[in-house]
């Protein structure tokens, strides 16, 4: 049930609710990492004003009213009482400053995506329907330079200028998922982790992989992208479960 009393940070309320739900489900799926990792969502036409989780708050506790509203061109926020995590500012601030198409960005160190990012060859071959979703839609960063402070964030943002690349496999680090909405981005995050798990487990068999042809992989990826209402219904169902559980995410 949603509380009805006056709430702080009411601006962009539906966006806040959707993003808070994504945090809660990322925690339920064990995609989070302690009080690290960040999701952000642009709320201005040019993409530079964005919502992001507050510093050092566990994903399982984040509420809609907790989300920070930041300006990617205003570093003054780093000196305030409610300052964002400096690595989150470095990475997400750079993305929203330079990549207007990246409306929503979800960065995690989830287990299987990070295992993939730790391999000498971090490409994800199309060996099933889920892995095929990401065919020709990923970029691999092989130049990890430490924590994602501003210089590292600027470098990563420069690699994501192509709107067709919706996933960055961050070598020795984790994964960054991009999308137009919270629903699209969370759905992509969910399926990328499953795809990475399928690939890692297939490698563990030690047997040869049955890799799809480029033609079939691209056809599959396009069919999934055009599948009606998949992302939206996924998020709506997750919010319905949270509501039935009495979660306070939408407060």
What tags apply to this protein structure?
251 residues; alpha+beta; L-fuculose-1-phosphate Aldolase; 7-stranded mixed β-sheet; 7 strands; 39% helix
Major β-sheet profile: 7 strands, mixed
Tally of separate helices:
8
Give the helix proportion (percent range).
25-40%
Describe the global form.
Answer: globular
For the biggest β-sheet, the strand order reads: 3-2-1-4-7-6-5
CATH homologous superfamily name? Class II aldolase/adducin N-terminal domain
Structural class: alpha+beta
Q: What top-tier CATH class fits best?
A: Alpha Beta
Distance between the termini: 9 Å
How many domains, in number, for the residues?
Answer: 1
CATH hierarchy: architecture: 3-Layer(aba) Sandwich
Low-pLDDT ranges: 1-6
Radius of gyration: 18 Å
Number of strands: 7
Beta-strand residue percentage: 5-15%
Would you write up a description of this structure?
By secondary structure, the protein is of the alpha+beta class. It has a single domain (13-244), classed as Class II aldolase/adducin N-terminal domain (L-fuculose-1-phosphate Aldolase). It has eight helices and seven strands, in the order αβββαβααβαββααα. Strands 3-2-1-4-7-6-5 form a seven-stranded mixed beta sheet, sandwiched between helices. The longest helix is centred in the last third of the chain and has 23 residues, at 182-204. It starts with 12 loop residues before the first helix and ends in a 7-residue tail after the last helix. 41% of the residues are buried. Residues 1-6 have low confidence and may be disordered.
């Amino acid at each position: 049930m949603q509380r009805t009393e006056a709430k702080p940070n009411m601006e962009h309320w539906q966006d806040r609710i959707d993003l808070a739900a994504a945090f809660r489900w990322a925690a339920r799926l064990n995609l989070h990492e302690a009080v690290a990792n960040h999701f952000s969502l642009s709320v201005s036409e040019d993409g530079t004003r964005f919502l992001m989780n507050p510093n050092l708050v566990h994903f399982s506790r984040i509420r809609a009213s907790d989300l920070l509203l930041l300006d990617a061109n205003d570093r003054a926020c780093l000196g305030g009482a409610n300052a964002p995590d400096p690595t989150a500012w470095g990475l997400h601030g750079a993305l929203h400053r330079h990549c207007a198409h990246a409306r929503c960005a979800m960065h995690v160190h989830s287990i299987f995506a990070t295992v993939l990012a730790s391999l000498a060859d971090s490409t994800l071959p199309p060996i099933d329907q889920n892995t095929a979703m990401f065919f020709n839609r990923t970029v691999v960063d092989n130049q990890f330079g430490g924590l994602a402070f501003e210089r590292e964030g600027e470098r990563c943002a420069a690699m994501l200028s192509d709107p067709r690349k919706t996933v960055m496999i961050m070598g020795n680090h984790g994964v960054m998922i991009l999308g137009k909405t919270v629903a699209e981005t969370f759905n992509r995050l969910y399926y990328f982790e499953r795809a990475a798990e399928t690939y890692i487990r297939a490698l563990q068999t030690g047997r040869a992989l049955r890799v799809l042809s480029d033609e079939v992989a691209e056809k599959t990826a396009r069919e999934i992208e055009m599948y009606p209402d998949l992302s939206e219904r996924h998020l709506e169902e997750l919010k319905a479960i949270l509501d039935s559980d009495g979660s306070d995410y939408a407060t």
